[in-house]
């Protein structure tokens, strides 16, 4: 069977059901005559047990929910395809990485880690970034995050980490937050978490959208080519739009204004044809170079600095279709880092090794048994045959009397494949040693890369990390825990620890020497790798009756031509009339919209005559300014930002020039104007 980008869509067509225009039936196909009233003994009498339609409908409703994921419960997903740029035959025999003319269907689920399924999207958290490739050799799952390292080195610690970061058991608070005692108690007493905490408190943990964050496979895997040569490999997803983040005050307000902010952004972008794109990159290290670095390549709390191990960009993924049903697809999708194809293999990373057990185990309870692979979203596009039978949720009707190997009744089929026929053969790594419950001494350096991360940040990014420490630890009730954490991070940077200590009212560390690590990596900084652009950015256009129709038409067209998404905000819904009779449809009111939901704000005029509208518009613009966004105004709209300090992100012209829109868009491309940060 030829696999292409439409293969999964065609397979799913078999399971899609459109109810519109159809007659109602029971699940057995019996037409239903009444769905408003249950069957009773008289109009005011008791409901009768023989009402099978009522019982079927209510029983199904009572069982509609399945256990949410213990972690990554809050998620959203989309379909798309992947194309490799050039054959990777030299490095791996994985079939989907060979032919640039092939489009491999994919399904990607983004998620937060700590919160429940109903929590907000914009909380400070790690984001899951998991991709299912439906290849002709079987499903390959790249189960990653938007941060390249993790809190722990060994999977046996994972339950402890999650217990610590989840709402505290005695009062079930706080939801979807790490700013509480048990999490920071864990950090202070498990210092391998230092590097990940630096990432977690950086802007990486509050992305602007799923479309504007990196993805990482986190673990070290292996590429294996047809000759059996193996290389260590790490996987990267790099967003074409660049890496962009929220600011903390904005993220908190978005959680209240629109808790669906990230999922709405992804849904709307795809619906409007702004298909998210991510380039796929790999870092590779030859096996003979395993020990030549100042970090252990198997340690999941370490990155491979890109200056030392460059990222080779090898392909691109495009997400071009939203799901039809969130439960059937996004909720029921089952990822597993052990779902690999020939040419991709594992390493002895102890966190990865534990995940290879855990993911299957969790699907068994969530999805009701061992047949979760037969659910439509999980079903491989290529055929699959084996002697597994029965169990909850079985959808395959196996024909014949044989369900074992070896056999003669079915000519010993289904039969294993040789490696030449595409059979998966594990890499023959030499393993020897005594059985010990220990970690290698090479895993004991917990602070050097945390310091490298700090050294790599710009002053603006460092200030955000300090503020994040101050907020998170400021929520911790135990002064002793706050002191422990400050003492711990003095090992990363003494000045960082002293500044945070002053904010928290605890003792500044005095007996810790400044770190001698001077190493940095510009690739770790968002600001040093900023991609300027305005495509898909949302602009709030504030307008009222009597706006300048001529200017509005010209500026609106320039915004749309640049690929931005201008949306009109006013005092009421309906149509606005300009000074020349031109009409403009209102998308939102000041009650239903907020500056935190937009990337920039432009005041077009017509709002200053109404005191209430003027107050609302000024507050809208001022908040956007305080969040370092581009704000602009023309005509009488300039009165609304007259009190704001002038800087490159304030674009104000009472009589707009012909290139006003270009000036506004140039400022918008900066994303944030950090000169306002004091």
UniProtKB/TrEMBL annotation:
Domain called Catalase core: residue spans: 25-413
Biased composition (Basic and acidic residues): 7-22
Gene Ontology, cellular component aspect: cytosol
Coiled-coil regions listed: none
InterPro entries, per the entry: Catalase, Catalase_AS, Catalase_clade2, Catalase_clade2_helical, Catalase_core, Catalase_haem_BS, Catalase_immune_responsive, Catalase_large_C
Gene3D superfamilies: 1.20.1370.20, 3.40.50.880, Catalase core domain
Active site (record annotation): 72, 145
Spans annotated as Disordered: 1-40
Cofactor(s) required, per the database record: heme
UniProt xrefs under PANTHER family: CATALASE, CATALASE-B
Family from the record: Belongs to the catalase family. HPII subfamily.
Protein name in the entry: Catalase
Organism: Domibacillus iocasae
């Amino acid at each position: 069977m030829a696999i292409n980008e439409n293969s999964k869509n065609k397979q799913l067509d078999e399971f899609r059901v459109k109810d519109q225009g159809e007659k109602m039936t029971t699940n057995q196909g019996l037409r239903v005559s009444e769905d408003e009233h249950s069957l009773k003994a008289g109009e005011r009498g008791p409901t009768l047990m023989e009402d099978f339609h009522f019982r079927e409908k209510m029983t199904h409703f009572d069982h509609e929910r399945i256990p949410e994921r213990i972690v990554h419960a809050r998620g959203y997903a989309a379909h798309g395809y992947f194309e490799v740029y050039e054959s990777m035959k030299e490095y791996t025999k994985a079939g989907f990485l060979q032919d640039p003319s092939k489009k491999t269907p994919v399904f990607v689920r983004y998620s937060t880690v700590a919160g429940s399924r109903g929590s907000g999207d914009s909380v400070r958290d790690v984001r899951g970034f998991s991709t299912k490739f439906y290849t002709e050799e079987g499903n390959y799952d790249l189960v990653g995050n938007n941060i390249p390292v993790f809190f722990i080195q060994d999977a046996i610690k994972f339950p402890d980490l999650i217990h610590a970061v989840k709402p505290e058991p005695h009062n079930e608070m706080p939801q979807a937050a790490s700013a509480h005692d048990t999490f920071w108690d864990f950090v202070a007493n498990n210092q391998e978490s230092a590097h990940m905490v630096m990432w977690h408190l950086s802007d990486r943990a509050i992305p602007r959208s799923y479309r504007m964050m990196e993805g990482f496979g986190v673990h070290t895997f292996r590429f294996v080519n047809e000759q059996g040569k193996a290389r260590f490999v790490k996987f990267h997803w790099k967003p074409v739009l660049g890496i962009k983040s929220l600011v903390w005050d904005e993220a908190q307000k978005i959680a209240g204004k629109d808790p669906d902010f990230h999922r709405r952004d992804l849904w709307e972008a795809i619906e409007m044809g702004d298909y998210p794109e991510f380039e796929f990159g790999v870092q590779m290290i030859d096996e003979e170079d395993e020990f030549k670095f100042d970090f252990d390549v198997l340690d999941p709390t370490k990155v491979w600095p890109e200056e030392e191990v460059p990222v080779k960009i090898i392909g691109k993924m495009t997400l071009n279709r939203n799901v039809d049903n969130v439960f059937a697809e996004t909720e029921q999708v089952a990822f597993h880092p052990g779902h690999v194809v020939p040419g991709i293999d594992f390493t002895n990373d102890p966190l990865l090794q534990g995940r290879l057990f855990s993911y299957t185990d969790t699907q068994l309870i969530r999805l009701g048994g061992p047949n979760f692979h037969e659910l439509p979203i999980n079903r491989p596009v290529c055929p699959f045959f084996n002697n597994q039978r029965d169990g909850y949720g079985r959808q395959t009707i196996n024909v014949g009397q044989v369900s074992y190997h070896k056999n003669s009744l079915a000519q010993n089929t289904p039969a294993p494949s040789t490696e030449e026929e595409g059979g998966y053969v594990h890499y023959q790594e030499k393993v020897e040693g005594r059985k010990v419950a220990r970690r290698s001494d090479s895993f004991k350096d917990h602070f050097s890369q945390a310091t490298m991360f700090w050294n790599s940040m710009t002053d603006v990014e460092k200030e955000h990390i300090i503020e994040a420490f101050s907020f998170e630890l400021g929520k911790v009730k135990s002064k002793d825990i706050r002191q422990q954490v400050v003492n711990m991070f003095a090992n990363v940077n003494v000045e960082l620890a002293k500044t945070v200590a002053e904010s928290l009212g605890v003792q500044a560390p005095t007996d810790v020497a400044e770190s001698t690590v001077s190493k940095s990596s510009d690739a770790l900084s968002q600001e040093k790798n900023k991609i300027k652009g305005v495509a898909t950015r949302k602009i709030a256009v504030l307008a009222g009756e009597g706006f300048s129709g001529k200017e509005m038409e010209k500026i609106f067209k320039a915004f749309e031509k640049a690929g931005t998404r201008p949306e009109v905000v006013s005092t009421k819904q309906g149509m606005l009339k300009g000074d020349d009779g031109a009409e403009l449809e209102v998308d939102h009111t000041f009650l239903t919209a907020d500056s935190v939901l937009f990337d920039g704000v432009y005041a077009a005029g017509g709002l200053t005559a109404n005191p209430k509208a003027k107050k609302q518009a000024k507050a809208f613009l001022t908040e956007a300014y305080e969040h370092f966004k581009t704000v602009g105004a023309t005509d009488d709209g300039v009165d609304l930002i007259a009190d704001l300090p002038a800087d490159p992100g304030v674009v104000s012209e009472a009589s707009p020039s012909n290139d006003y829109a270009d000036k506004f868009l140039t400022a918008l491309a900066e994303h944030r104007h950090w000169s306002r940060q004091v």
